[in-house]
Amino acid sequence: MTSSRRHINPWVIALTVMIATFMEVLDTSVANVALPHIAGNLSATVEETTWVLTSYLVANAVVLPLGGYFASLMGRKRFYLTCVTIFTVASLLCGIAPSLGWLIFFRVLQGLGGGGLQPISQAILVETFPHEKRGAAMAVYGMGVVLAPIIGPVLGGWITDNFSWHWIFLINIPVGFLSFTLTSSLVHDPPTFHRISLKEGARFDYIGIGILTLGLASLEIVLDEGQRKGWFSSGFIVFFTITAVAGLLFAIFYELRKERPIVDLRLLKDRTFAVSILMLFVLGFVLYGSLALLPIFLQTMLGYSALLSGWVLSPGGLAVLLMMPVVAMLLKKVDARWLIGFGFTSCGLGLLQMSGFNLQVDFQTAMSSRVVQSLGFAFLFVPINVSAFQHIPPDKTNYAAGLMNLVRNIGGSTGIAIATTLLARRAQFHQTALIGHLSPGNPAYQGFLDRTTQMGITRGGLSPADAAHMAQGAAYGTVIRQSSMMAFADTFLFMGVLCFALVPLLFLMRRSQAAGPVAMD
């Protein structure tokens, strides 16, 4: 087995493990645009169908930190193949689900299977490539993990419009079959991999697993349903918030006391890993937060079609795809901290450009701002992941990968939740401020009413009373649009400032280069 592994090109292994992982990450966002179609087909409301998204993310979050334990118990390859099988079969069941209840149940199974794919594929890449080529391995991984959510909504919209929502899930079946076949023949556990026995596994505290699962599931429910339920004005959200806080605090306290924890939080003692974890959280926050806002802005504020808004986002995805290999090569010569600093600066500048948008912004400006931001993602993902693994012992790779992917996914859920909440709250704030100008004593407002009323009478053939009502409606509509535009600008600005705020943390990280010896200072 070891000799056969030695003759397999590591790039073949990299592409093999990324096939299913790409589809798994894609499924976090590909169903978003199909919710109205699913609701109509399954006789449900759009709000009820949001559980198709929430259930998948909750199940994903539960499995991500536990992948290291299950891989050690079952063997990394066997666990990965099990996850691929569950994910593929669940995708088939989702595609033929007869009702919303069954679809949500199958999405839970799909999320449970998919949750183990990200950390295990990352761990396989880290150990397959020698230290000096680890940046290239992370570039391959980043192409899947960062690019998939970018193209997900565009692909989902195209499939739904041209075929049906069922095919969003059914396309996973041939991909899963291909992944299972290639993984079975090409991927093997390394000689250094330590597999624990069932007797050793029994020593683990399954109460700890239960509490951690409860806490993470509750947290995801709060983040995904908070804005729709009105946050803490809802007893539903308050209950799950208390459950999440209590469960996670107990899990953290309990895991730190365990000699062989399921989630090894002691890895955070390494300052480079701890800072990398925080940066991955913000990366997920900004990536998913901006992905949630931009299509809404383009379609509701500028009147773009779903396809046209997809064309605004697509060049950003292409920039990520082209630049990640370049970043991997730069890692051999440049300190990773400089690349991370450039990445956060570029991402922040792109978001600051977006904060300057107005209702007359053109296609070229919107697209170029997205490209600037996406360049930042390319310079962030690879160096952060390489730096994070720099001082992690080989036997802790699975645990570190699970923790990193969990934090990035929670960052994404938090980014969507805060971005949509901030958008709604700032729109209310600006609307209240602007509405005060709509008073008869305001010459500008009165002049607008007079001009619009006269236009309605002369060009529209309306009566004076109807023209006056139309003018007042037009004034209020302008206030709504302007307040929404200002809210989008505020939210983009918040995310941009967040990117710049992380740059000083680079000084806490140890010098890290993909080439050269690993410093253990």
Number of domains: 4
Nearest-angstrom radius of gyration?
25 Å
Measured by DSSP, the beta-strand proportion falls in under 5%
Give me the strand/helix succession: HHHHHHHHHHHHHHHHHHHHHH
CATH superfamily of the largest domain: MFS general substrate transporter like domains
Q: How would you describe the overall organization of this protein?
A:
76% of the residues lie in helices and 0% in strands. With 521 residues, it is mostly helical. The two termini are 36 Å apart.
Question: What is the compact description of this entry?
Answer:
The protein has 521 residues and is an all-alpha fold. Helix content is 76%, strand content 0%.
For this entry, give a set of tags:
globular, mainly alpha, Growth Hormone, Chain: A, disordered N terminus, 521 residues, 4 domains, disordered C terminus
Task: Outline the secondary-structure elements.
Layout: H1 2-6, H2 10-26, H3 35-41, H4 46-49, H5 51-63, H6 67-74, H7 76-95, H8 100-115, H9 117-128, H10 134-162, H11 166-170, H12 172-186, H13 198-201, H14 206-229, H15 235-257, H16 271-301, H17 306-330, H18 336-355, H19 363-389, H20 397-435, H21 443-458, H22 464-501
